[in-house]
Amino acid sequence: MEFVEIEREEFAKFAERQVNANFLQSAEMYDRYKAKGREVYLLGVKRSQKLCLVGLVVAMRKVGKWKIFNCPGGPLLDYNNTELMEFWTREAKKFLRSKGGMILQISPNIIARERDIDAEEVPGGENNLAVKDNLVKMGYKYLGEYEQAKWVYKLGVKGADLDQMYKNFRKGHKLSIRYAKDRYGVKIRELKYDELPILKELAAEAGEYHGFRPPEVTYFQEMYKAFGDKVKFFVSEMKDPETGKKVVTSGGMFMLYGPEVVYLYSGSRREYKKYGGPHLIQWQMIQYAAKNGFSEYNFYGVRPVKGNGVYAFKRGFKGRVVELLGTFILPLNMAGKAYVLRKKTEEMRGVA
Q1: pLDDT in tens, 161-191
Q2: Distance (Å, rounded) from C-alpha 245 to C-alpha 243?
Q3: pLDDT tens, 25-41?
Q4: Under DSSP, is residue 313 helix (H, G, I), strand (E, B) or coil?
Q5: Enclosing H/E stretch for 42
Q6: Which domains does the chain have, with CATH numbers?
Q7: What separation in angstroms does the CA of 218 have from each of 36, 156, 240, 283?
Q8: Which of 36, 56, 53 is nearest to 45 (CA)?
Q9: What is the DSSP string of 164-223?
């Protein structure tokens, strides 16, 4: 086997074909990092001149003079091939250490345990906890849910009967979709580049209510430029019943990459929530995914606990909870080992 730095086009061709392909491990995300002046590498393994593993690795931040590198959503490979992952880990460790790295963080885009709509484990379902054990044996420390979503919500759309799918939605969701179209005249339209501040405003309002920090408008602009037609920004609009003026009621950002459409960011104006804009946008994008050859519609992050409003909203579309393997960190030098030791101490004190 040979550890190599890969050219962008070779990386793109391999990455998008993988079963665990995701936009975080894409040539377009590489382009975004490069445009921002970030330190980013495309690292892979070849066997007999043929690629069998790739990983986009980016310098996240510095701790003193040392760097923490991240491989978000990756690397991409068959994780049952322990020998391959061991080789990449060993060689990536040497490579990144030569670049001033102290930590490598990875978040494999694979299922930990198969779950149902209620987040209950499916008896006899897919289980990759052995991969977790193997990574720990390689020297990685398991962090669980850390900076990247571990729990997401998905709806299978490959070969779906859309009429039947709609019938399966929660009753309130079906009413919201129908009323939005037929009673309130809600329309969905795509945003242009110069209109992206609209989504930023909507996300900020949602973030204030749900307690998260939304991205700056520059993030949406960077993604628009990097991904082109692989990212979409939609809003719902209607005439205000009291003023007759057209108003934006909700909006969302959607990634179209590999096998899935990902509902990544969104926001809505609470005073217009009852008019069903968010439900209508979701239904439009679910249909788009099904009609354009995608296998999954990914609602992205959830907290699968009773009483969580975001989970309840996504659950109403009758998909399933997906538990991903989570995040791991690998010390690259003595400074990295000290960093990991601090993490362990924090956990013992109940901080982390």
Answers
A1: 999 999 999 999 999 999 999 999 999 999 9
A2: 5
A3: 999 999 999 999 999 99
A4: helix
A5: strand 40-47
A6: 2-145+325-348 (3.40.630.30), 153-323 (3.40.630.30)
A7: 11, 32, 30, 28
A8: 53
A9: HHHHHS-HHHHHHHHHHHHTS--EEEEPPGGGHHHHHHHHHHHHHHHT--PPPHHHHHHH
